[in-house]
Amino acid sequence: MNDTNSQPLKLFNSLTRTLEPFTPVHEGEARVYTCGPTVYNYQHIGNMRAYVFADLLGRTLSWKGLKLTHVINITDVGHLTSDADAGDDKMEKAAASSGKSAWDIAKYYTDAYWKDIDRLNIRQPAKWSIATDHVGEMIEFAKGIADKHCYELESGLYFDTSTVPDYGRLAGIQSDDIEGRIETVEGKRHPQDFAIWRKTPVGETRQMEWDSPWGKGAPGWHLECSQMSMKYLGETFDIHTGGIDHREIHHPNEIAQNQAHNCSEHSGANIWMHNNFLIDRAGKMSKSSGDFLRLQVLIDKGIHPLAYRLMCLQAHYRSELEFSWDNLVAVLTRFKRIVMGIERLKERLAASQDEKPPHPKLTEIREQMNAAMNDDLNSCPVIPLLEDLLSLKKVDAAQRMDLLREMDLILGLHLETLTRADLRLRPKSAAITEAEIEQKLDLRQQAKADKDFAAADAIRDELTAQGVELMDGDPLRWEWSISI
Ligand code: AMP
Ligand code: ZN
Predict the structure, then answer these.
(1) Which ligand 1 atom is the nearest neighbour of the CA of 34?
(2) What is the pLDDT of residue 1?
């Protein structure tokens, strides 16, 4: 680890409900698994918060000098409409209602998800592990634990949660309390027992089904993550992440399988981390509403996707974050000011020397950033630190630029390259093109030069009515006004 590690990185472990210093399993490395999307639909921006968080974690570990191996899975089979064992298979259901094949649905929404990953500048993991590519290995995993830990029912192979110690510890509840929270399947020995293999009902054919010792069927969702995480990261790896809802069922079930597979009380990952939810009082964070908030909806309004990333970074990942358009527009304005500050900083670079030792103010900012990130990835104070850095006009520009680049290794906001013009996205509702705006601005300039102020004002009014704000004296010249 580099000098940013003189103080330990502390992370909140949902298993122990405490902040714990991060100690890698393999010296100099960090191995992280993130529960990925179920690709039966688009991801909403709440889902994307989970990946911004995992990316922040990965970037911080890399910044600390650790060799990061990050794996994110794609659940293209096995997730039922309930997190327990009830409901339909989400993929099969989406296929039935759209008339497309489950495979086509999976491909389409995986591509859409990857596009959003890119637009949020989330770094590519070392491996995207696709569930359907691993079914044979999942069957082998299940065979290995079936005798001691599972029992067969008509509907599938079930994991007996009483065969592992401390089931439900992650959820922070006693196993008795779990009763009633999980929909029952006839014949289960305990309500919290779960399917690791779901048999295709007699007389039915699923689009996605495989032969197994328990009959034709599909793997349970929890089995996927146990098998793929340990395949790529080892039986004991560093960190497992997911949204806070996974703390209740999905991750306790993964832990139970890991314990069974490893014949150990250890849960597989040393640290289990969970991001809190993005919430929306208008109910737009629920896919069942049909009309949920996707990144594309933000873009269509003229909001740059990285403004959403900044919005996530402004809150601690363990806090609930309430979504509102007003908040998002305020974040975009803040982002534009930051980028404007960077544009000014770049102008000063030519006159810069960059030979002196680091300015004490910059050393202080770097230390404060390190302390904040060490405190369970507290990215919130890093944004004002960035603004402080930009306000230090008397400090050498090259030195400031170096620190800015370093800050962006963590923030991932494309700070060095983004311009205010890039942040100016054309709203879908705009009836005028950028070329037309520029043309009108030239006409207005000519009118002003001819001292025809009435004509110049008329052009301004016309543009205002079309959602364009003019900015006299600013090299950017104009901006879309965002109506929400
Ligand atoms: P899914 O595609 O439903 O499996 O969810 C993908 C990820 O998004 C999981 O890690 C969930 O825990 C997480 N998630 C779901 N809803 C939200 C939300 N509103 N805010 C933040 N994360 C969420
Ligand atoms: Zn998972």
Answers:
(1) 10
(2) 42
Residue 298 contacts residue 328 (beta carbons within 8 Å): yes
CA 84 / ligand 2 centre spacing (Å): 13
Rounded to two decimals, the pTM is 0.95
> Distance between CA 124 and CA 344 in Å, rounded?
31
**CA 36 to CA 129: how far, in whole Å?**
9
Q: Which of 423, 426, 437, 435 is nearest to 478 (CA)?
A: 437
Rank 74-78, 284-288, 393-397 by mean pLDDT and report only the highest: 393-397
Distances, alpha carbon 393 to alpha carbons 350, 351, 397, 406, 463, in Å: 14, 13, 8, 19, 36
- Pocket probe for ligand 1: among 43, 47, 311, the residue whose CB has the most ligand atoms within 8 Å is 47
Q: Are 272 and 240 in contact (CB under 8 A)?
A: yes
Task: Answer whether 42 contacts ligand 1 (Cβ < 6 A).
Answer: no
Q: Is residue 212 within 6 Å of ligand 1 at its C-beta?
A: no
Q: Which residues pair with 480 in a beta bridge?
A: 468
Query: Could you tell me if the CB of 242 is within 6 A of ligand 1?
Result: yes
- Separation of 245 CA from ligand 1 center, angstroms? 7
What contacts 286, CB < 8 A, 6 or more positions away?
44, 292
Whole-number Å distance between alpha carbons of 101 and 115: 21
Instruction: Decide: 141 in ligand 1 pocket, CB within 6 A.
Output: no
Q: Cα(46) to centroid of ligand 1, in Å?
A: 6
Q: How many A from CA of 441 to the centre of ligand 2?
A: 53
Model confidence pLDDT, tens digit, residues 458-479: 999 999 999 999 999 999 999 9
- What is the position in ligand 1's atom list of the atom closest to the CA of 39? 2
* Rounded CA separation 374/11 (Å): 8
d(CA 401, CA 353): 12
Q: Is 245 in the pocket of ligand 1 (CB under 6 A)?
A: yes
Whether 365 shows a pLDDT value over 90: the answer reads: yes
Mean pLDDT of 61-82: 91
**Count of positions (residues) in the chain:** 484
For residue 443, the CA-to-ligand 2 centroid distance in Å is 58
If you average pLDDT over residues 339-346, what whole number do you get? Answer: 97
128 or 179, higher pLDDT:
128
427-450 per-position pLDDT tens digit: 999 999 999 999 999 999 999 999
